[in-house]
Amino acid sequence: MATMDSSITTTENYSAYYNIFGNLFSDCNNTSVTAFSQAFLPSLYSIIFIVGLAGNGLVVFVLLKYHKTSNMSDLCLFNLAVSDLLFLISLPFWAHYAAISEWTFGSFMCHSVTALYMLGFYGSIFFMILMTVDRYAVIVHTYKSLLSKHRSARASIVLSLFIWALSLGVSLPAIIFSQVKNESSAWKCRVEYPQATMWKLVSYIELNILGLIIPLLVMVFCYSRIIPILMTMKSQKKHKAVKLMLILVIVFFLFWTPYNIVIFLKFLYQLGYMNTCLWDQDLNMAMQWVETIAFSHCCLNPIIYAFVGEKFRNLFLKVLKEWFPLCFGHCTTIESEFSERMTSTVLCKSIQPS
Q: TM spans, by residue (predicted)?
């Protein structure tokens, strides 16, 4: 165990709150930050875990049960849900870590949970990019897409494997450098990059570029080309499609921009700018809030990408009808009769003059 003198000379005083990308080196007192994380993070992470697990689990179940083809759109949606599930599985461990300020799961689980976290994090972002590019190719380059239709299944599988390999490659540094150490009579699991190297600074830049700049540029470019084409089509559903695409960009921007701003400020902090205890405390506190906001985006993915779509929504109702026939079977029957005949007795009574 390191002595107090060695701890002072290395100036490594970590807050109890775990930050997967490394904590700030400082001698500042982060007691208030630790107290906040112990009180609120377990509850917030638990809510995200439960809601996200239910939504993404339903997406995976429906796609496995009813979708027999391997087209790019369905495969991207499936892998996006799997990425979110991997990410969500790691949250209970971080919630427990934040609650007691000590890692109790051992070194192997530190590497494993970090791997789940990072693979889910980057996998979710990369599959959103792939889904956006696929929509761009289908709508903007329709004829080329039709010519390669016979290769779509094979190409979809190859691209999906490439995305997973890319996610693993980007995640490897954090997975490799994650470790468990005994500090202040408590075991800590964190990513500790080698001293006197650029690994930490590179990780911050990597997060900003791969986590926000590239996805946002791709989404803005693709949807700026897709929306004008949809507007020229004589379809009643074009406005709904345009609205959905705008929601995708806006929601992604709102949920991930605060997180990336704080990451950039931490990058500046590592360079020596704003190097004060006040900034240290403010950044650690802000990171907890913006991480929670960003993490909750995986709960919205099933709603945005799946449940908004009419085809998937019908399959979802079909699943509920099979699971709960007494309730949803009756409800879906009424809904079907209403949409096809408009002859419900209740509706007839409601339109009769008083």
A: 44-64, 76-95, 115-134, 155-177, 201-223, 244-269, 289-308
Task: Give residue 169's region: left, alpha or beta (phi > 0; psi -120 to 50).
Answer: alpha
Domain for residue 281, yes or no?
yes
Q: What is the pLDDT of residues 302-311, one digit of tens each?
A: 888 777 766 7
User: For the segment 47-98, what is each residue's pLDDT rounded down to a tens digit?
Assistant: 999 999 999 998 898 888 876 656 777 888 899 999 999 999 999 999 999 8
- 108 Cβ contact list (under 8 Å, min separation 6): none
The CATH code of the domain that includes 302 is 1.20.1070.10
Q: What is the pLDDT of residues 255-291, one digit of tens each?
A: 999 999 999 998 988 888 877 778 878 888 888 899 9
Distance CA 323, CA 328 (A): 8
* Distance (Å, whole) CA 41 – CA 354: 55
* Structural domain boundaries, residue 136: 32-320
Task: Give the closest residue to 210 by CA, choosing from 163, 144, 175.
Answer: 163
Task: Give Dmax over CA atoms of the chain in angstroms.
Answer: 87
**What's the predicted TM-score (pTM) here?**
0.79
Number of Cα atoms under 13 Å in the Cβ half of residue 90: 22
